[in-house]
Amino acid sequence: MEPHLERRVDLHAVAQSSIDVFARALHSEMRRLESERDRLEAERHCFLEERQKFYKESRWMERSNRHTKDAVKLNVGGVVFTTTLGTLHKEPDSMLSAMFSGRHRIECDGEGNYKVDRDPELFRVILNMLRNDEDPELREKICRNPMLREQLSAEARYFCLGRLSKFLQDAEIFEWCGARTGSVHPEPLLTLTHHSGMILSSIIMDDVLYVGSADTTISVISLVTYTVMRLLEGHTDYVTCLLWHGPFLVSGSRDTRILFWRGGERLEGRPFVGHTGFVQCLASFNDEFIISGGQEKVLKVWRTGDRECVQTLEIPDVEEGGIKCCVMYGDTLFAGCGNKILSIRLSHDGTMCTHLRVLEGTSGNIRCLAVSEEFNLLLSGAWDGSIMLWDLTVPTNLKHQGEKIRISADWVSSLMCVAGVVVASANTNLSFWNLRTKAMEAMWELPHADYVRCFLFHRNVAITGSFDKTIRFWKK
Length: 476
Hints:
single chain, alpha+beta, Potassium Channel Kv1.1, Chain A, Methylamine Dehydrogenase, Chain H, 5-stranded mixed sheet, 7 helices, 26% helix, globular
């Protein structure tokens, strides 16, 4: 065959091959588009069904709200209670709120009262707590009655009442204080010695204790069996602070990093990096942001969704050591640095107001902070062994001098304030103070070999972590 004819045959073969490839690709794309059309049609059908269901529920909700606009009557175990929708919606995530959201049909008795098959006397207390959970007489009545607390705990779990559950847990401390007055030398229930470094931080979620240590690990301890379930490894220096932020455990370290953990595993992705000094404290704001305080005298706000630093605020005129502690109260951040406490407002987008209010008057460097929402007080513990009480109702444009309580010759390393009781650790002791009388009601002299750095209470067990590298459990 002549050369020019061979070239024509080759070109024809190449063209035919290209057409075949294109045809197959076109056929495949048509099949994909048909599949996508079917998927979108199915989604459209589901959407129309959901919209129709929503309209039906909306109409039922409107009718329900018209009937319950002024009052709601509940038949609880044969006793009729009258309340309002506002009271039942006080805890948005509770069963009571869901029952009266308009999305569920509730059985009624012959007189039109909504039936709730629970104990009426316990429900009376729950309803009163929903109406006003700051009532001091009601709170003290619950605090001083262990059997009532146990019964209410079961009801709080049934109705998913988070605030009530938290109050009942806190009320255990009130009983700890009342059960052991004066100077006490308790014996530990159990001592754990698995850490090779000082105990620096601790936090509880459900029935699990998390403990941060100078050996760079976080131990995960069951509070049912009191055994170490696992060690979380990821930091390369002291684990200085722990925080719960939504479903996540957050840890800060002297390695300058902030790590997130869930289900005993470190979350993938880059850590929160930006500090040039130790991360010394953490706080949570609006479920979207965390705030960290650093040794390099800065506060940082991080958006947890994309792990970006929203703002860095340098604090002027701060002594060496930087930001030692911080705590949130509503939209206000309190940060301890040197012998001052900074009061900083945060906006909804996480940015900090650069106009700082300074609470002065402490005679020693601030080491820890706590808030009493019941008494509207900020409490600070210092290196000189004193606790200062600051009235949070004082307008921010006024200078404010705190009230001092001297509790020890040694530094106050940790504070907790619940149910009208302040618990403070100093040296190897725990002291219990009545906020109403400002008087110490009990002092625990614990057999730790070094300072108690952190403490927690869980049901009828107290937990202490010490610089002597031990975690000890104390039973009431």
